[in-house]
Fold this sequence. Notes:
The protein is α+β, with helices and mostly antiparallel strands. The protein has helices spanning about 5-25, 45-50, 55-70, 80-90, 95-105, 155-170, 175-180, 195-215, 270-285, 305-315, 370-385; strands at about 30-35, 40-45, 75-80, 110-115, 115-120, 135-145, 145-155, 185-190, 190-195, 220-225, 235-240, 245-255, 260-265, 290-295, 335-340, 345-355, 360-365. The chain is built from eleven helices and 17 strands. The strands form four sheets. An eight-stranded antiparallel sheet has the order 10-11-12-13-17-16-15-14. Strands 1-2-7-6 form a four-stranded antiparallel sheet.
Amino acid sequence: xxxxxxxxxxxxxxxxxxxxxDVFPGTQLLGGHVSEKGFEYRFLFSEGVIQRFGERELARxxxxxxxxxxxxxxxxxxxxxxxxxxxFFEHLGQLERADxxxxxxxxxxxxxxxxxxxxxxxGPFLTEATAASSFKLLHSEFIKNxxxxxxxxxxxKESLKDYLKRYKDAKKRxxxxxxxxxxxxxxxxxxxxxxxxxxxxxxxxxxxWRDMHAKMGFQFVHASLTFNDPLEFHEWVFKREKPSLPYxxxxxxxxAYDVETIFCKEKDLIGExxxxxxxxxxxxxxxxxxxxxxxxxxxxxxxKNFAALLEALKQxxxxxxxxxxxAEEEPSESLIxxxxxxxxxxxxxxxxxxxxxxxxxxxxxxxGSMEQWILLLIEQSNRAG
Length: 385
């Protein structure tokens, strides 16, 4: 996502929240975020609104957003002490936002202000609402009594028009819609649940994961991580190339993720990172996914870790961008971040590599989220069909 789209979509997201309060006073704001696809915001509605909410109500909200943009309501950013902001939102009747402010560790919080509308939200924002006029609400979904409204925004109407055409075509291959129809996965509240056919596919992927590691010389062991949950079991692999180092431990969690920890000698660190990069690249190529590669930095992390990842990327000659995602928090550690591109052109979190250069330790994930991997497989097979 272009860095200039971030403040735009952030602003339109807040215009959406203001419009909802204009159309449905008393609605509780729950917050939202922006992404490569656009933006979303969650609301807590009264039972009466939930029963009658549909396309007509969504259109009313969008019309109100356009009115706000046309009126060019002034936008300013305020800073408040946390306790003052909490009391302020309690006074506004936004109790959910007040609770969220009370839980933040920051002593000073940022407030978005647009005339009488206020929201707890970090910037950056545009300074004029009229600059945020090329937008479209795309989808709304109730989860219990919470409503999530999704939309997108661009700097000009032509870019928006082009995206909406791609969006219409992409919806036909959207795995979130196809997975339940195919009996693979379904949503239970906010979680994906593997249905019997999907569970068989998940097991098949895990078997393939194990086969790929076995061919590289790994041996498998089993462990119960009692410090976490005595009933939660994980698969581990173990490899010794020599009586001493290097040796490797890997874990594939029953929930969704595979995580591997690789210990090596100091002189082999760059080579092991490069080997991991090649392993991930080969796996993505086998499955036919499109990917983007990012080198993420962290101010909290050792500079040697970033330097080691950078050197491995240069040696592997893999094209990458050295930047953090503007819509996401700075990572707690430097990492090589593979984003797998879905039918909407959005890069989803996939495999990654992190490193602790002082301990000569590498942490990698070959698949990333198992649910995302399977959803991408569904889109891939539908695209081919």
